[in-house]
Design brief:
By secondary structure, the chain is of the alpha+beta class. It has helices at 70-86, 95-103; strands at residues 2-4, 13-15, 25-28, 32-37, 40-51, 54-62, 89-92. It holds the Pfam family Acetyltransf_CG.
Length: 130
Amino acid sequence: MTERNRTGNDDVIVQRQEPIETELEIEKQGNGFIVRGIGGQVGEISYKLADVGTWVIDRIHMDAPYNGTELERQLLDLVVEEARDKGRKIIPSAPYALEQFKENAEYDDVWERSEKEFSDTYSSNSVSSS
């Protein structure tokens, strides 16, 4: 939010950061998780089924005050833990998920590097042309 300085000096603009809610709940919803605050949903992660043993993380969204925070990583870790518990692999299609999978070896056990329909050049071992 932007507002004029109350001192009468119109040349000064004051930037106000939206407050981050401290009471947040993460809950399982369908194929993913959502984060709710007092004002409603503030973030989500979702995945699709590529096949019986593989999920595609296709969306991670956080409202502005939470974007780039540890909360985003917590959502990713919840999906990864669920995949491990169920013996599934993951294709990280969402940009944040792909970045985290590439930077953190702790995800190697669930990372499906294949040429499945939802894979991209970063999650494939090789790309074949038809």
